[in-house]
Amino acid sequence: MGQYRASGETGQSPTLGWHRICMLSEAIISNNLLRESFMIRAGFSISFGLDELADQQHSNPKKPLEVPVQEVREPPIDILEEAGFTLILAELPGITKKDIKLTLNDDLLTISAARGGKRYYKEVLLSGPHSRNQLRFSCNNGILEIRAYQP
């Protein structure tokens, strides 16, 4: 019976082709591998995709794997239709009025805010077209209140 090695003959990163995976599976099922279990290196892994991150982890296994993440949160909102205006309430913890950017294109209101490591983004579809000068907003204790007045 041949040896099954996870790292291949050249000692490169431990990736296996489907053919070798099938051979390993067949050997395990037929119980042949149990008799020759001393030939398999302990601690190998099979990975698919993200080859650069896998190679980074295998080159220095003591260093924790770092995946850069840019977290943009979507704030919870309430939309209330009042007489003469639409009231939009959004929860943006840690954000002040100067950190908020509002963009209005016809009936699409875009809310974006950033402060420190916190970033928020939300698109809100209004009931009808509005203009920028019809918007009024305030932010107190992370609660954004937007009033979009009817034309």
Task: Throw out a few tags for this protein.
151 residues, alpha+beta, Immunoglobulin-like, 2 domains, four-stranded antiparallel beta sheet, three-stranded antiparallel beta sheet, 3 helices, 7 strands, elongated, disordered N terminus
Task: Report on this structure.
The protein is an alpha+beta fold. It has 2 domains: 1-68, no CATH class; 77-149, Sandwich (Immunoglobulin-like), CATH 2.60.40. It contains 3 helices and 7 strands; from the N terminus they run αααβββββββ. The protein has helices at 18-29, 32-35, 51-59, and strands at 77-82, 85-91, 100-105, 108-115, 118-125, 135-140, 143-149. Strands 1-2-7-6 form a 4-stranded antiparallel sheet, with no helix packed on it. A hairpin with a 2-residue loop joins β6 and β7 (143-149). The radius of gyration is 28 Å and the shape is elongated. The chain starts with 17 loop residues before the first helix and ends with a strand.
Any chance you could write out the topology, listing elements then pairs?
Elements: H1 18-29, H2 32-35, H3 51-59, E1 77-82, E2 85-91, E3 100-105, E4 108-115, E5 118-125, E6 135-140, E7 143-149
Antiparallel strand pairs: 1-2, 2-7, 3-4, 4-5, 6-7
Gist of the model:
The chain has 151 residues and is an alpha+beta fold. Helix content is 17%, strand content 32%.
